[in-house]
Amino acid sequence: MSIRVLLALALGELVFSQITYTGRFCAQALDRPANGAQVVATVWALRLLAAIVYLVATPDPTLAGWSYFHMTASFVGAMLTVFALNRVLHLRPRVGLARAHDIRRGLGFSLTIGASYLKNDADKTLLLTFAKPEAAGLYSLAYRVITPLYVPVRALADSTFARFFREGNQSATDTYRLARRTTFIGGGLTLAGGIATMACAPLLPWLLGEKWEPAVVATQWLAFVPFLVALQMYAFNALIGLGRQKECLFVTVGASVLNIGLNLVLIPRYTWKGSTAATITAEMISIAALWVLLRREVHRAPSGEHLRTI
């Protein structure tokens, strides 16, 4: 892969696409999550259209050609995002340098999100490395089946994220109550979805072929992982809204390290079952730690006193 291809992909994903996601976060901050979702959906539709046009119009597609096309589509999407911020949200983005205070706070968010990705994806990478490809394939298929269960959880998290900051400015108790309400909703949806997924998993061989019969059990084992994620996501957002990024980072990094360690121990002997057990264990510990921290915050700063520690 040439430097030009890497540069084109980097510009498309790490610069232009991030402008689009920043626009989405701006919409969330203004309590306009629907507008943010519309911007992202429009840009992704544009990128899909660009991919189709490139494949149809190019008789001999290459990685280099696609990388340039992808970069161009991402750039157009970034410009559309800036236009939407101006016209729909009445914001006027401008080029400038970030302040040191914003960099420090943003770094905490970045590290926390990065640790979350590590916790969520380490099992798949390690399973592919230390187990047979067949086991990794079954595990990946099972994850694909349960992925739609995350949609309502993340949609609810996106639509309430700004509220956690507003509640956090007022009272830790109000923030806790919001976290509890959203957890009941998100947890209820994913619990129902997990039960339905477990019940319908035996249909996989009928839909995909008999060779995927072992994926039935893997899917049933993983069916309630989204439920575990829902039980912690809103407590996590509440702590972020209360200015407790460090605590969230420590919990996420600790769960990631535990997940990786358990995977290294369990995968060689139990393959995907060991990976599933490691994931469930790490998620349950995250749930307990986040809610303990949130309850402690309620008792320590019931009237917004936490703001003096940010």
From TrEMBL:
Q: What topology in the membrane does the UniProt record assign?
A: Multi-pass membrane protein
Cell compartment(s), UniProt: Cell membrane
Locate the transmembrane regions by residue number: 6-27, 39-57, 63-85, 184-208, 220-242, 249-270, 276-294
Which species is this UniProt entry from? freshwater metagenome
Tell me a GO cellular component. Answer: plasma membrane
Q: Which InterPro entries match?
A: Poly_Biosynth_Transport
**Looking at the keywords, is Signal present?**
no
Q: What is this protein called?
A: Unannotated protein
List the keywords (alphabetical): Cell membrane, Membrane, Transmembrane, Transmembrane helix
